[in-house]
Write a structure and sequence with these properties.
The protein is mostly helical. Helix content is 69%, strand content 3%. The longest helix is centred in the last third of the chain and has 30 residues.
Length: 373
């Protein structure tokens, strides 16, 4: 691709010179880290559950290859087509998330997955990027078109998702989507009084989750009072970071993957810390931070309110998901089963994050007069 001339007017040629290549390179770096860390972590996990050593690696190679194709394919679209994809995706994800309550696979007391041959999908993962774009369109259209109840519809979509995720339950996903929505309302110029009400509402919802859901209460209490319950996974992860030191024990030399059932997924950051050390962990953190800040900085000179709100929601969801995963592994917040984008094992996660990053790249491409809106 780097050989494209600036005079090349093909679809890929125009895409290459208008897309944010720095963000694209950083996403490619995360996918590279994903291959390396799943290769390091998954064989031990597969053996422990009596599967072929290569089962997770083989699947993740396919997942990440598809994710790369999704990123490029979606980033070729115009903002109008991004809106269409997001609307169809949001409706489909809501319906499939509702289906999990009836025909979903129950794992650890939650119904979040639908089983298909060869894998399980988590439809709620696709709500994050699609919801961010749909609500951005509703909020923007509500201002542009007199009489269009954009804000009411946006809150209606959010309310429907809230009820579905509460019923599964998936409080972590609900927290991320809530943060995305309120970030968009804030960026969109919502009155500060309403911002305060929203913050109080989120605090009230957090208290409600603590009271209503035993697993939430257990995780919070174990975080606040380590002596009150089992801390095996977090303690093991922290030991892994300590064992890794600055430069790590070396590829394949880690022990955390032999001890943690989710070493290839929720605790893959601990594998990185033990085998590759603090410097690689800081590099991964820096790549995530760069993508988020780069995405926000690309909006400074943007005039299209829809693009600003949608991109702000997309980078908020992406950054918050990465923060929750890494902070959980480091015991900075109560543990929450959330994947590290492009690095943890998982098909639904990889493809949904790829969809969101493809949308972000499409919306932040440099456009000239006459380009499709």
């Amino acid at each position: 691709m780097a050989t494209f001339s600036r005079a090349d007017q093909s679809v890929l040629g125009r895409w290459w010179w208008t897309v944010d290549r720095w963000t694209l390179f950083c996403i490619a770096a995360l996918i590279g880290f994903g291959y390396v860390l799943v290769l390091a972590a998954s064989p031990a996990v597969a053996e422990r559950i009596h599967q072929s050593r290569d089962v997770f690696i083989a699947k993740q190679v396919v997942f990440l290859a598809l994710a790369g194709a999704v990123i490029v394919g979606v980033s070729l679209l115009s903002p109008r087509n991004i809106r269409r994809v997001a609307l169809v995706g949001c409706v489909a994800a809501i319906l499939l998330t509702a289906l999990t309550l009836v025909h979903g696979v129950e794992i650890k007391g939650a119904r979040r997955w639908i089983a298909i041959p060869g894998m399980s999908i988590q439809p709620s993962e696709f709500l994050k990027p699609c919801f961010a774009v749909v609500t951005a369109w509703l909020l923007t259209e509500g201002r542009r078109t007199r009489g269009f109840p954009g804000v009411i519809l946006a809150f209606g979509v959010f309310g429907a998702i809230l009820m579905l995720l509460k019923s599964q339950p998936d409080i972590g996903m609900l927290t991320v989507i809530t943060a995305v929505f309120f970030a968009q309302l804030f960026v969109g110029g919502m009155n500060m009084a309403f911002v305060g009400v929203g913050a109080l509402s989120m605090a009230g919802a957090a208290v409600g989750a603590f009271v209503m859901f035993p697993h939430v209460r257990s995780r919070v209490m174990r975080f606040l009072h380590p002596e009150s319950g089992d801390h095996y996974q977090v303690d093991t992860a922290l030991q892994a970071f300590g064992n890794g030191g600055l430069l790590g024990r070396g590829p394949g030399e880690g022990r955390v993957k032999d001890l943690l059932p989710d070493a290839h997924a929720d605790f893959v950051f601990a594998v990185a810390g033990e085998e590759f050390g603090l410097l690689i962990c800081l590099t991964i953190l820096g790549v995530f931070a760069f993508i988020v800040l780069r995405g926000l900085l690309r909006l400074v000179q943007e005039n299209d309110e829809f693009v600003i709100l949608a991109a702000a929601g997309l980078v908020t969801g992406f950054g918050l998901q990465a923060f929750v995963n890494m902070a959980s592994a480091l015991h900075l917040i109560p543990t929450k089963g959330m994947t590290l984008p492009f690095i943890s094992y998982g098909g639904s996660s990889a493809l949904s994050v790829a969809l969101g990053m493809g949308m972000l790249l499409a919306l932040t491409r440099r456009r000239t007069h006459g380009d499709p809106s």
